[in-house]
Amino acid sequence: MNVLVISDIHANLDALTAVLKDVQDFDAVWCLGDIIGYGPEPNECIQVVKNLPGLVCVLGNHDTAALGRINTLLFNQEAQQSMTWLKANLTDESINFLESIHEKEVLDVATLVHGSPFNPVWEYILDPYIAKGNFQHFSTQFCFVGHTHQPIICSLKKDNQQLIWKQPKFGFEYIFEDKTILNPGSVGQPRDYDPRASYGIFNTETKSWTVNRVEYDIPKAQDKIIKKKLPTRHAQRLSGGW
Ligand code: ZN
């Protein structure tokens, strides 16, 4: 089964549409949270995601905050500002969809979370040290995470417990035998200084993994952010990928 793995769409419908156009064929979709927050088209993105085939989705911190389950004072000022806008604009249908999602999904071959298996909504796996401490918190061979908006591969060698931490080469197919944490990067707000939308393709039989990047109409997405009077920084960062 070919699985499209996406994360951190952040209400960027233009980026999401470009990803779905770029992927040739997939049987299922794993979505690692933060469908909304920052961007201008939250309801539209939820509508697209909820109709994707074989969808398994987990909650991100922005999704959780939109449901009023966490204090938005934990967010920076601009994120708070967009959260206020978001709460005023989310439809009941969107809220119902988010209410139906869990923080963690454990499938046959993979565990899905937004942040980390230890702290599914909040922890950022930003470095090998944090990653290493997380391997004891999932029992499947793979754990898929998002949240940092940076694609990463992290494997723990079975024989000598050596940790491998690297950025994937885009378009390159990796196959893993060891326990591995994989981050597909962000669809709608990349933060690795590459502004192109990021996504991964995972094959559950061959256990192969490829991260791809795709260009989309960034000025169009920025224009929507400005028109909806969301913080301009959220528009600016899209062109630099930061
Ligand atoms: Zn995010």
Mean model confidence by pLDDT: 96
User: How many strands, what sense, and barrel or not for the largest sheet?
Assistant: 6 strands, mixed
- CATH H-level homologous superfamily name: Metallo-dependent phosphatases
Instruction: Name the poorly predicted regions.
Output: none
**CATH class division:** Alpha Beta
Helical content (DSSP H or I, runs of 4+)? 25-40%
| Overall outline | globular
Question: How does the helix and strand content classify structurally?
Answer: alpha/beta
Write up what this structure looks like.
With 242 residues, the chain is of the alpha/beta class. The protein has a single domain (2-240), classed as 4-Layer Sandwich (Purple Acid Phosphatase, chain A, domain 2), CATH 3.60.21. The protein contains 8 helices and 12 strands. The model has no long low-confidence stretch (mean pLDDT 96). Residues 8, 10, 34, 60, 147, 149 line the site of zinc ion. Zinc ion (ZN) binds at residues 8, 10, 34, 60, 147, 149.
